[in-house]
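tool_call predict_complex ligand=fe (ii) ion
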Amino acid sequence: MSVERQSATAARPAIATETHPDAQALRAWWTEAWSPATKEETYEITDIEGEIPRELHGTLYRNGPSQVVLPEEGYHKLHLFDGDGLVNGFRFDDGHLHYRGRFVKDASYLREQKLGRYYPNGVNVVVPPENDEFTIRQQHNTNVVHHAGKLLALVENAYPFELDPRTLDSIGNYVFDKPMVGYSVSAHPKIDGRTGQMLIHGYQWYEPYLQLYVIEPDGHCSLAEGVDAPYSVMMHDMAISQNHAIFPLAPIMMDGNVLMGGGSLNQALSWDREKPLRFGVRPRSAGGEVRWFDAPSSAFFFHVGNAYEENGKIFLDACTYQNPDNLLEGIREWRTGKMNYVDAVPYLYELDLETGECREKQLSDRGSEFPRLDDRLVGHPNRFGYAVVARREAGNSYERVLGCIQKYDRQGGPSACHDFGVGQWTSEAVFVPRAPDAAEDDGFVVSVVYDGATRKSFVSVLDARNIEGKPLAKAHLSHRMPMGFHGNYAHGVV
Ligand SMILES: [Fe+2]
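tool_result ok
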């Protein structure tokens, strides 16, 4: 088998000093931060600054794309969304931290390993099909969630893929115990912080355009239904409130004919600026009717922070792209390093269940992505959120992007920010409560940071109540873990 790999050790520009950052060098560092890992690693992390809080007893799972067999056109041709899933497990146990990384050995991965060449179509790269089979890779590279004792790697164009929670060994495709009503589920399930129910949607370019599944805490699927929608869009995320599932129908249109004709997913997607951002609100119970709310403007977002109901309204926050054309081009060019900013900004949407009105309010003009909160409050009123934001004062865009973690306060308190500094880019931040009954915000904000200067990653543990302060711990990996997308912490799973 011939496996081509991207060299991560080629000569590269160095940054002279922190005060005179060099944009070309930073671009090289930034590109390297996202480039694939070359092997699976397993080791105890022993190079630790500070102390890992002993209250952390569980595993932080993270997932992201890390392509092993590259296309003929090379690594830089890949789309942001392309790549084999590499699931990373950080096991916290009594002040110790153990790392393990394993590729998700799904059908796409195994077939490609067998063939020794990139096949079939990724999001950017089109490969002529060998027969009339459906030719889009299903690479479980977007999220990993632990629910009902199952560890599931997720991507939005496939069913979940089950992994062993401890070894991360691949087990196989996972379907729910009711007949599936679509060909895939999303990578963004929402686990109700109070009930433990997991709600997950699917979308496709033929009817039913949307699907909803409810998985009980014991793993039983209690609802699997199609959801009426006026047309098909790319719907990356959904939200839940106490009584409703909320479907953000943002007008990133997906042309199924392009896909069926052998085109790439990237070619099939476009923004229809004439259509508004709409929210479909549907009771979480069986047979619920959808009610549509139109936002004042056309926009798109990948990620919801949280949603909840209060005084007859649903409040939903998200990181919104006001010009999705920029986004579509940027994620297509991500691997070249051309995309060096995130222009999503935080918005609050207010859906009035009585009048049917939708209001929107921009909360900040600072680039913001990967919004998270205390998972115990998903679908319920929360005060605090944690997002990755741009370094506002930095001199060039590679310095700004993904440089900080911001804590925001819905009650209008001062926001606080942890700045990792030049050439250090943080992944999504996950909040872990100090104890099961700890108050909101009493706990730790954990993320994986790539340090361009050392060409290695470290795990950062911040005190949520003093987020701008020195990290409680920086646990230095002995290798570079590619930047990734999403992950979750599982208490007690060590
Ligand atoms: Fe996502």
